[in-house]
Amino acid sequence: MAEPPSLKRPISPPPVKKRRKSHAITANQNTNPPPKPLQPSLAAIEAGQTKIRDHLQYFSAHFAKLSKPTNESVQRLSIPDFERLYQRNQHAKGRHFVIHQHNHPVAGVHYDLRLQFSETSTISFAIPYGIPGNANSKRQGRMGIETRVHNLWISIISTLSSYRYLRSCPRMLIDNNLIESASHATGSLLIWDTGEYTVLPRRTPKKQAETDDEVSGSELGGYNFPSGVKSDSEKLFEAFQSVRFRYIRLRFHGKRLPKNYTITLRLPTANDIVKRPAKKRHKKPGFIIKRPDSDSEYDDAPTVSTTADDEAIANASEDEVEDSTIRQSNAYTGATNTIGSVHQRHWFIMLDKVNSGFKKENGEWVRNGSGNGFEAFFVRGAEVERSVITGRLCAEVMADEGVEGFQGRKKWWPVLE
């Protein structure tokens, strides 16, 4: 009997079931871990296009990768010390400070002093020519202009609305104490110095104390601060808000600034725009800001002169586009203006020579004994000054962030006398 045709047809074998791969690693398999995901770019973080949870870790790695070798004369703060400095001030009584060198396309080169007064916020002053460093300078005073209250750092963009807002205002993410960055819109920003500050008594004691602890219980701005009761940030807060005494004596413990470097911040009565009437529309170039009568025999500079060029630097130091909420509160996103900062208010900054370790002899200020005072230093601008963290120049920060063809504002010169 012949076989039926169905038996002669080729029959495909049944499909083989795919076995799940075992996760066990044998001796012959490659044990290399999978590649780590790429870090988001600094530009993406600034533009609000990405979120990171640990900004300190991000910038520490970023700085370590971009650090430049420098000679021994350049003061540097190590990355681990930079991390510890920031971490120990992440609380309501933190006293972190930073001085940024900012090369803005409109405002030009100036220096921004930021002082922490709460867990999230810092008051900020734009100083067109940097802080004073010569006890015998012919130009003793400096002008400091209050700007917006800045954030210590925006930890996480938590809502969609804030995310969209920050994308439209990239400046909001770069105004904090950690960053070094560059862009065509905002120029370059590098850390000139950073550390912690101490608030000293308003009145200079006749007998100078040897340590900060010995003077911490003295008077400042009309308030009494018993030793161990108030932190330095609380002293700063109350002195800043004092109506009677707008006078603050600050000692900086930084890496670049010399030991015991101390300045005074004074708000002349004529500049307290909270109390004075409507602002005049026209001002003559080269107007004079008169200081109130000094309460210390060591304060010897009666006036500070500001020019129309200084005014242009001060007024252009902020972005042209700002949200109405920021203008009303005078605080950037992530910060709160609980200290009562007033935008564009002019302060008087002066080197406190006695508390910095100098004494007057034959009409000149000299070091008051061994280990006191310091050699005069001068803030020389973007072409000379290097970051205390990465050792980079302004141009190197620009190059590292891919900014080409940047046209900065001219007519800036250092104060060398």
From TrEMBL:
Q: Where is this region: Disordered?
A: 1-39, 286-310
Biased composition of type Low complexity is found at: 1-10
- The signal sequence is none
**What is the species listed in this Swiss-Prot or TrEMBL entry?**
Tothia fuscella
Q: What is this protein called?
A: DNA ligase D 3'-phosphoesterase domain-containing protein
Entries under InterPro entries matching the protein: LigD_PE_domain
Instruction: Please report the stretch or stretches of sequence annotated as the DNA ligase D 3'-phosphoesterase domain.
Output: 100-263
Report the Pfam families cross-referenced here.
LigD_N (PF13298)
